[in-house]
Amino acid sequence: MQELIADLPLDDRPREKMRRHGAEGLSDAELISLLLGSGTRGKNAIQLARELLREGLASLGSLSADCMAKTSGVGLAKATRIGAAFEIARRLACVENADGARYDDAIVARALIGRYAHESQEHLGAVLLDSRQRVLKQCEIYVGTVSRALVSTRDVVRVALDANAVGVVLFHNHPSGDPAPSAEDLTFTKRIQQSLSLVDIDLVDHLIVGAQRYCSMRTKGLL
């Protein structure tokens, strides 16, 4: 017999638990159950949320609403609510890198992991900095294939000049999930560094984003 959320002890019901203890006290499944709103035949909302979370929270966040809706009992209305919540979280993560914030590789990389960790293609972009290493803007420059993102050094220089940037933090993701720099990454980074130096712009860092970790070439002494 299905156990209804209404049959749970008051302090175990996600809505009441959140009101009493705050959202931080809820498990991933409890949070997702609040977005679902209700369960389906044979499953309450928490059980349905656990089914959605079989591959983990990050994996769920990478799914489209159509993919989520394929889970029995979810449907498009529930799936779009969950998708909207993940998109809000991604946008909030980007706010941390809003104009005027000083560059911090850990903060920038955390937002990039949230955005690119589950992409199947390489994306290359840049965070553009002023003379105090404050963020002017962040932009995506190129989308490549599963294994590589070929971009001209001129494209990076042009974007930096257009923003009147003094420094550039290059970034790209590795669809394999491993952020370790390849020999090609090292060669490309040197080319970008040399090209930027010709117009008096510093390559401050190159971040490589994996599934859960990142590599800062500056921190690793590779710049």
Supply the CATH superfamily name of the largest domain.
Cytidine Deaminase, domain 2
Catalogue the unreliable spans: none
SSE pattern, N- to C-terminal: HHHHHHHEEHEHEE
Task: Round the mean pLDDT to the nearest integer and report it.
Answer: 86
CATH topology-level fold name of the largest domain: Cytidine Deaminase, domain 2
Strand content: 15-25%
Task: State the gist of this model.
With 223 residues, the protein is an alpha+beta fold. It has helices spanning 14-21, 28-36, 45-52, 57-61, 65-68, 75-95, 105-116, 153-162, 183-197, and strands spanning 123-129, 135-143, 167-173, 202-209, 214-216.
Secondary structure elements and pairings:
Elements: H1 14-21, H2 28-36, H3 45-52, H4 57-61, H5 65-68, H6 75-95, H7 105-116, E1 123-129, E2 135-143, H8 153-162, E3 167-173, H9 183-197, E4 202-209, E5 214-216
Parallel strand pairs: 3-4
Antiparallel strand pairs: 1-2, 1-3, 4-5
Can you describe this structure?
This protein has a 5-stranded mixed sheet, sandwiched between helices. The longest helix has 21 residues, at 75-95. The protein has 2 domains: 5-94; 99-216, Cytidine Deaminase, domain 2 (3-Layer(aba) Sandwich), CATH 3.40.140. The radius of gyration is 21 Å and the shape is elongated. The chain has 223 residues and is of the alpha+beta class. 41% of the residues lie in helices and 15% in strands.
